[in-house]
Amino acid sequence: MADGYDRIAERYSAWTGRELRGPRAKYVKAMQERVPARSAVLELGCATGVPVTRALADDYRVTGVDISPRHIKLAQRNVPNASLVLGDMTTLEFPAASFDAVLAFYAITHIPREEHPALFAKVEGWLRPGGLFIATLGAGGDPGTVEDDWLGAPMFFSSFDSATNQRLIAEAGFDILSAEEITEKENGDPVTFLWMVAQKAAGLQSGAETTKSSWD
User: Fold this and answer.
1) What is each CA distance from 168 to 44, 123, 162, 171, 182, in whole angstroms?
2) How much is the pTM?
């Protein structure tokens, strides 16, 4: 994964675009409406920082994580006011209750699906009570395939179906606020993703503010 994205970093950035649009824009806006400014936000799979990390950094204390050294180098240039971490989200460690929201757009489907439940549990631990987890997940079952030429490099994909993803998120300790399948064109072909918004249960934590629980 790291080598593939290193090879296509600039091409991927141009393909994604400089401005928020489509589902990315919708779900960033939804988070902004519910998570107070200056909150701590973690973005898993931040890529070059454009457009999502840059938009988040205008309002939040953002930490971006990516496995590609080239992505991180470009993100440092594109979003100098974000904290950026080079690493694998499945092995990364953060202190418990560090973040008010965790976003993962089009990133978790690059991880073998057998590792998804453990990652969801990690995210639940990283969130403060009431924190939001907003993620793009697969809508169909894929035990693991490699696309030989994805924007110019081999790329791995793996996912569960929508129903299984929702069950795994709930089993990790989240309340599901919304789950929406959205079909987009990817290199001219329709691809469907599950866009999931989930909330960590608002337990007792003295002196701590929690994220708004409504999802209207």
Assistant:
1) 18, 12, 10, 5, 20
2) 0.92
Q: How far apart are CA 168 and CA 83, in angstroms?
A: 29
Higher pLDDT pick, 214 / 118 = 118
Q: How far is CA 171 from the centre of its chain?
A: 19
Delimit the domains of the chain by residue range: 2-200
Give the pLDDT confidence of 120-167 residue by residue, as tens digits.
Answer: 999 999 999 999 999 999 999 999 999 999 999 999 999 999 999 999
The percent helix, strand, coil of the chain (3-state, each to 5) is 35, 35, 35
The yes-or-no verdict on residue 210 having pLDDT over 50 is no
Average pLDDT over residues 188-203: 93
Band of residue 187 on the pLDDT scale cut at 50, 70, 90? confident
Count H helices, E strands: the chain?
6, 9
CA 210 to each of CA 34, 99, 185: distance values in angstroms, whole numbers, following the listed order: 10, 11, 36
CATH, range 2-200: 3.40.50.150
Q: Which phi-psi region, left, alpha or beta, contains residue 152 (left: φ > 0; alpha: ψ -120 to 50)?
A: left
Residue 195's Cβ-side half-sphere holds a number of Cα atoms within 13 Å equal to 17
3-state secondary structure of 42: strand
User: What's the token pair of residue 106?
Assistant: 């089009």
Instruction: Classify the phi-psi angles of 188: left when phi > 0, otherwise alpha if psi is within -120 to 50, otherwise beta.
Output: left
